[in-house]
Task: structure prediction
Amino acid sequence: MRYRGESTRQTPAYYSKKLQIPASSLHSYLMRFLRLLLLVFTVTMLWAVTSPGQPKSPAQLYQDGGVAFRKEDWAAARAALEQSLAMDPDRPAAVYNLGLVEFRSGKKGLGIALWRKALAMSPGFAPAEAALAWANNQIPRSMNLDPGVWENFRDAVLVRISLIEILSIALMVFAFSVYLFLRYVGARRRAVLDERPTPPFPTVAWFFALLLICAIALSAAKTYDLMIDRATVLTARVPARTTPDAEATTLFDLFEGAEVIVRQSQGDWWQISVPGGLTGWVQKDALFFSSSRRTEQ
Result:
């Protein structure tokens, strides 16, 4: 028997007695084995870190792009961020940073287009909103047209909230409205059974019913907006023509960074419209789809 508190740790001398090996030799064997394990671990880690065939993760490429951007090495930053997005395209921060690279390297139209794309991917994305607000003062306006109620509403509300967020709000309002309605029906039923005056319909229920209607209307507006193809002008100046023909009459000019709505395609041309109602045809290579369901550029 062993007393409580007696040490149960077995020493090298214990094992040497069991194995009929001198304690000093057993200790030497153990130390050699541990050194071998340490050497194997070190070689494995060095091989994993320095192996040229080891692909970088999207996060590592994103960090490489940031390092190159701070060095103003636009080509390296662009390459790293494009590789990161090729592996993980659903990263609005990477799209935004790529827009910074393009804008700083002189491609202002492409930079603005990428910021709009980042904002479309993540509505309310603060860095993209701030960059677009700043860029609007850096580029010439195509025309001084009133964008209209819809475009003003879109810029003020729809680009700042996602459809999932709107539907979540609508679902919560609907659930609370159903609760208030069932509560009112129960109170009315008890009043009828007890031969008491029926209670009035609660004012808060009317409020939540109105809020539910607004949420449904907002979700419909957001859905409609998501179905509209929008593009950004890439070149310094592009003419919008009456027909899809380079010799056709110019209706108006669009400047770099302007946002247009794409209506239809014909050959190498897009039919576009600008906020305010003007419509024309521009060549496809002058546009970048910044907020669109299309994959064709």
Observations:
- Residues 230-291 form a domain with the SH3 type barrels. fold (CATH 2.30.30.40).
- The longest helix spans residues 163-193.
